Amino acid sequence: MTAYIISRVSISDHEAMSGYVADAPESVHAYGGEYLVRTGDITALEGDAAYERVVVVKFPSKEKALGWYNSEEYRELRDIRWKSADAHIICVPGENPLPV
Fold this sequence. Notes:
Distance between the termini: 18 Å
Helix content: 25-40%
Shape: globular
Structural class: alpha+beta
Number of helices: 3
Strand order of the largest sheet: 2-3-1-4
Strand content: 25-35%
Number of domains: 1
Number of strands: 4
Order of helices and strands: EHEEHHE
CATH architecture: 2-Layer Sandwich
CATH class: Alpha Beta
């Protein structure tokens, strides 16, 4: 079952994050990930959108998504992000296994 990593990010150090933004796709693609959304063009329809970027990455499975997030390839980039931005990141299944 597919899985999505959804991130809402507020950047404090734009210079450091520019390197992260440039280098992250290689690690994402290595785990079968595909960017669906990667933007700062946010229109709040309800609630407060108090963040600068939204990123949605589709992975073939939750195992691949978590494998990427915890990987050696991503660890150095994650450390840069931790120092340069605040983020709210979740992993959700791509299909709803419960009846609607």
